[in-house]
Amino acid sequence: MKSNRRRFMIGAGAALSLAGFGAGSTVVASDHSGLAFAEVNTKDEYVVLKNPAESDFDLTGYAIDFEANGENEQDRPFPDGTVIGAGETLTVATGYKDVDADVDFDSDGGLIRDDGSDVIAILDPDGEEILRSDDESHWADDSNEGEEQDESGPEEYDITITVVDRDGKPLQGKITLLGTEAEILGERELDEDGQASWVVREQGRYAYNIYEVDGYEPSSDDSSFEVDGDTELTVEMTEVDESDDEEQDGSSERDDDGEQNEEESDDGPEEENAADEDC
User: Fold this and answer.
1) Confidence of residue 19 (pLDDT cuts 50, 70, 90)
2) Is residue 270 part of a domain?
3) Which contiguous run of DSSP H or E holds residue 253?
4) CA angle 88, 38, 199 (to 5 degrees)
5) 130 in a domain, yes or no?
């Protein structure tokens, strides 16, 4: 059970402190063994840190980087006085989703990709990485609590979609994967084999959107599929008959001409009648 739980809403440049610790608390920050990852939830945009040590851990001056393997600047400093009690956990949320978190950075947009490609890191006051979510040794070992621990971190599922024509020939274009909440998980270019891949950490119903495949359209309107493990999906595309479109365009032009000719024929008798009246 968590202790000393506080919720922070942090805007740009804001700094808040955590109060209420007893005078007898021992806070350490130099021993990084007192910190580990317990959970990374990509769907709800939060990270759970655990302090397995026998002393409290002070995160003052530390920061969390939500994309340590990317080019975007997504590091956020912890509020002054943020402490994880000995044997306790701390939930840190980006703020993009409504989560009951200890620290909430109140972000207007998502920071953690749902496909699980982002690496989360904890930075010490010197800006050095002391924890990375892609390092198995940086995850908490809860075996002493009688729970089975997956040392590789959260479970991941590979999704591979292959796009072909009716003869099985790979097609090129673009494809977007939609998540369980219909959120866009990432656009991909179909490779020479007509394939695109994603890594997700959530089971459930997904969907895809294929486009920019010249001369082809999906054979089915249903683009949803179920993910309960590694998933390979082949999508068949139907060649579009461009001659039908040309015939329809020609028919439209003839209709337009017909209306125009009819209008011109209507003008003829009116002019003749007018001439008769003048006579």
Assistant:
1) very low
2) no
3) helix 242-278
4) 165
5) yes
